[in-house]
Amino acid sequence: MEQNLSDAKISGSGTIGGGKYDNVKISGSAKIDGNIECNSYRCSGSSTANGNINTKEFKISGSTKVYGDISTEDFIISGSSHVLGNLSAKRTNISGSTHIDGSVNTDSIEISGSSSIDQDCEAEHFHARGSFKIGGLLNAGDVDIEMYGRCSAKDIGGENIKVKLGSGHFIHELMNLFFSQSKLMVSIIEGDNIYLEHTSAKIVRGNNITIGPDCDIETIEYRNELNGGNNCKATLKKID
Questions:
Q1: pLDDT tens-digit readout, 20-34
Q2: Cα separation of 137 and 189, whole Å?
């Protein structure tokens, strides 16, 4: 980023033109016209961006809608955001609500709120402690899902995959009064080491597989070890 750039601040209602800035800070209501590049983009109010955002930090505690792509080091959402393009980030942390129409490519993603990704999600580490919906492939080295509400993906691939029910029993029971029973809905799960609870899948394929309670799986294909496979009445196949 160039030095001696000016800040853009909106505390009431206003418009920020496209261009390069140091810090963009919105505590009121703002409209962004065009692509912007900045060191940080922070919104505790409401903002609409009609272009792409390239920044080191994208932090939303209010409400933001972006009609283009976001490229950032840190994508932090404690409010609500809607990205109509793609997200590229090093670190993604969602404790609020986020809807991404495109794909997500990130080193690590932490979800403790609610997320919807219409296309693929690619990460080294995927940790979810809430609910999510992924329209395409979830592909990560480590997939760690603790469900509080419904979760779904078209397919899941990874090295180590763990899916279990949320451990806060009181919170889980309270949420089930308002939401459908927590379960992961997916077509194919493929990985090296897989542990599943409360999962519905057509095919689960891996080296070492453990099937926990409340799983509905049509076919299990395993290479080395299978534990609990008979609990879900699946067709079992030992593969080379």
A1: 999 999 999 999 999
A2: 10
Place of tokens 């519905």: 200
- Cα dist from 42 to 19, 46, 104, 156, whole Å: 16, 10, 20, 32
Q: Which element (helix H / strand E) includes 159?
A: strand 151-165
* Integer Cα distance of 21 and 228 in angstroms: 56
Is the pTM of the predicted complex or chain greater than 0.70? yes
pLDDT of residue 169: 47
Q: Domain-by-domain residue ranges, the chain? A: 1-119, 128-240
Query: What is the Cα–Cα distance from 42 to 23, expressed in whole angstroms?
Result: 8
Is the CB of residue 109 less than 8 Å from the CB of residue 134? no
Range of weakest confidence among 90-99, 176-185, 200-209: 176-185
Q: Please report, for the chain, how many H helices and E strands are present, in that order.
A: 1, 20
